[in-house]
Automatic annotation (TrEMBL):
This protein's name: Xylan alpha-1,2-glucuronidase
InterPro entries per the UniProt record, alphabetical: A-glucoronidase_C_sf, GH, Glyco_hydro_67_aGlcAse, Glyco_hydro_67_aGlcAse_N, Glyco_hydro_67_C, Glyco_hydro_67_cat, Hex-like_dom2
Superkingdom in the source lineage: Bacteria
Protein source organism: Shouchella xiaoxiensis
Keywords noted in UniProt: Carbohydrate metabolism, Glycosidase, Hydrolase, Polysaccharide degradation, Xylan degradation
Protein EC: 3.2.1.131
Length: 688
């Protein structure tokens, strides 16, 4: 197929939520055009140019004509710095003073619209907000909006490798690298930066946390000129660039014989290295570090701890206001847990809580949402709440490693909301995770949220077109954690697919049900870890890759689940504040959806819904498959409302999901029937 033809077919998938659909209704067209026909913008900085490009593109696409840029205009774009203009438009300083530096005001009066950013970045976000309002067909008359992000850092972690592959990537190859070089496809990167900025993402690390041999060189002369090119693109959309580094760089790049953080030569090496990086990129964000985990080097080699390791880098970065993002995903993957006391879930807390207060103030610890590893359901990591004198970032995973790999449908915002709303209780009621990551609970200097990206070079960016909702939702939720999963979804549907009522209803039902459907046919009740080893797609009941010591579900003839109680188990529960610890520890109080995470129970244990655990397992696996069949028929009912490319893209994936769900159902149910010897109460056939 001709390139151009293919492009026009896939264009809607490519544009994601920035469709800027032509406004056909005459009245609506007249209303919006009256505001955008003339626009004024003071500064022509990098961000200013991005704002101008975006508005030109959007106006052209929505109205088929171009705005005139002039001093006196219907749409006035400015920042707080321009006091005279604010006075002229009756905006008082107090309104702005309430906003943080990324905030903005949008105000309409007498058919004139003004967008005021607390900074240029704020203005960029304000413009995207305005474009969202127009795309959603909201009236601009008498509008007053005052908005600012709740979380300071709203970051994406790309797990892209320089050979063009992406660790846990399910949407093609990297848009950053190919075959050992940094990409020259600046159009694609610019479009990515636009997508990110449009939902408020303001930071990105551009290489895999596992920094292999070649990636180690990204901070060397060989690559810095190219990295700087990428950095400029993202900077012009207000996105600060970070690099993941190899802790052993002084050895691998500097040819020193040690990377010991307390060694003066190593400290000097990092100082010089950081100075070199900033000579290329004065606004560089800093380093992301995975150390002493899954065979990556770290301070443990030198019998130093993680505060020593992080502070080494922090000292080198601090003259430039750079930051160290140090990951807490530290555990010994070779550990022997047969004593039933050793527990991977305990690792992050055990390593980091004793170090609380010892990190420099430009270090921020990045903590995965759960204590294990992005399973379909996990409790919140107990580090939240336990760390009180340390900057923290929460880490989510947008890429669906354990959640169907963008073949299976799984809208993740409801899960993320549960995490943010979890009350750690450490400072009494209301000590939610959100209050920790927005910096308010402990007055943290740096805080926020990061997530592993789900994008790649496929035309739809995310492989499964509906997985775009997760990238969009991540940005919107980290901007404003008070938005509901439904609100975010409704915005996304309209911006992505348009205004058709049926489409809105059906799509939102499908997506809102999708997480629990996936959970039902995979690992309900919090057990996790029944996937195929290494690649992590599809069922393998005993498949945990570090399983030479047994499996993680501890299923035997009598029952299943991991005993993490204080009396007979690993005592992991006691890493939580007392109220939560007691609740998780007590069999009758532990929520059912986490039951098997905390307790080993007999198959005949009754859940709160009155069913036995084994019957619940059978039922949910049967239901999961029926629900996927329902997803398919719902999607089919939308055929006439969706362009052929996106329709087919999703239809094909739903078929893959159905085979996956059937396989899970058959293998899980048969496995537990054999183990337990307890038949299904409804006498259904266990495999086809
Ligand atoms: C998971 C994932 C790895 C990744 C690791 C991490 O274990 O499977 O691919 O490197 O998380 O977060 O560092």
């Amino acid at each position: 197929m001709q390139h151009v033809e293919m492009e026009s077919m896939t264009e809607q998938a490519y544009r994601c939520w920035l469709q800027y659909e032509t406004i056909l209704n005459k009245q609506e067209e007249a209303h919006y055009w009256s505001y955008v026909q003339t626009i004024s913008l003071q500064k022509e900085t990098l961000i200013g140019q991005a704002i101008k490009r975006e508005l030109n593109l959007a106006v052209e696409s929505m109205f088929g004509k171009t705005s005139t840029w002039q001093e006196d205009a219907q749409l006035v774009l400015t920042t707080v710095a321009d006091k005279a203009r604010l006075r002229k438009h009756g905006i008082n300083q107090e309104e702005i003073a309430e906003l943080n530096e990324e905030g903005y005001i949008i105000k309409e009066k007498d058919n004139q619209l003004i967008v005021v950013g607390a900074s240029e970045k704020g203005l960029l976000y304000g413009v995207f907000h305005l474009l969202r309002l127009i795309s959603q067909k909201q009236s601009l008359t008498d509008l007053t909006i005052q908005d600012a992000p709740q979380n300071q850092i709203r970051m994406l972690n790309q797990w892209d490798n320089i050979d063009g592959s992406i660790e846990r990537g399910y949407s093609g190859q990297s848009i950053f690298y190919s075959n050992g070089t940094v990409t020259t496809d600046e159009k694609r990167l610019t479009d990515y930066a636009r997508l990110l900025a449009s939902v408020g993402i303001n930071a990105i690390s551009i290489n895999n946390v596992n920094v292999w041999k070649e990636e180690t060189h990204l901070i060397s002369e060989r690559y810095l000129t190219d990295v700087q090119r990428l950095e400029e693109i993202f900077q012009s959309y207000g996105v600060t660039v970070y690099l993941s580094i190899n802790f052993a760089s002084p050895i691998e790049l500097g040819h020193l014989d040690t990377a010991d953080p307390l060694d003066a030569g190593v400290q000097q090496w990092w100082k010089e290295k950081v100075a070199e990086i900033y000579s290329y990129m004065p606004r560089f964000g800093g380093f992301v570090v995975k150390a002493d985990s899954e065979h990556r080097p770290g301070p443990f080699t030198y019998e130093r701890d993680h505060a020593d390791g992080a502070n080494l880098l922090a000292d080198a970065l601090s003259p430039y206001n750079g930051m160290v993002i140090w990951r807490c995903f530290v555990y010994n993957c070779m550990q022997d847990w047969r004593d039933r006391k050793t527990d991977r879930a305990r690792a992050a807390y055990d390593h980091f809580v004793p170090l609380d207060g010892r990190f420099r103030d430009n270090v921020v610890l990045q903590i995965k949402n759960g204590p294990m590893d992005f399973q379909v359901r996990e409790p919140v990591s107990p580090l939240f709440g336990a760390l009180q004198q340390t900057n923290q970032l929460l880490e989510f995973q947008i890429t669906q490693e354990y959640l169907g790999q963008q073949k299976d449908l799984c809208y993740l915002v409801p899960m993320w909301k549960e995490v943010l709303q979890f009350d750690t209780k450490v400072q009494g009621e209301g000590s939610t995770v959100q209050s920790i990551v927005n910096g308010s609970l402990y007055q943290a200097k740096i805080s926020g949220i990061a997530a592993v990206a789900n994008s790649g070079d496929e035309q739809s960016w995310t492989g499964h077109t509906l997985a775009q909702a997760n990238l969009f939702g991540y940005g919107r939720l980290t901007w404003n954690a008070d938005l509901t999963a439904e609100e975010i979804l409704h915005e996304w549907i309209v911006l992505t697919f348009g205004h058709e009522e049926k489409l809105k209803r059906v799509l939102s039902e499908m997506l809102l049900a999708s997480w629990s459907i996936y959970e039902n046919y995979t690992t309900p009740l919090g057990i996790g870890w029944m996937v195929n080893p290494n690649h992590h797609y599809g069922v393998n009941v005993d498949g945990y890759e570090y399983s030479r010591w047994g499996t993680y579900h501890f299923a035997d003839r009598e029952g299943l689940g991991v005993d993490r109680t204080r009396e007979s188990g690993t005592a992991f529960v006691d890493q939580y504040a007392k109220e939560n610890a007691d609740r998780f520890n007590a069999l009758d109080q532990c929520p059912d959806d986490l039951l098997l995470f905390f307790h080993h129970v007999p198959y005949t244990h009754r859940l709160k819904n009155g069913k036995t655990v084994i019957q619940h397992y059978y039922d949910s696996h049967f239901e999961g498959v029926t629900d996927v069949e329902w997803l398919i028929s719902e999607w089919q009912s939308l055929k006439s409302l969706i362009d052929p490319y996106r329709y087919k893209n999703v239809a094909e994936r739903l078929q893959l999901q159905l085979s996956n769900a059937r396989e899970w159902r058959d293998q899980v149910n048969t496995y537990f029937l054999r183990k337990s010897g307890i038949p299904d109460a409804d006498g259904r056939k266990m495999y086809e």
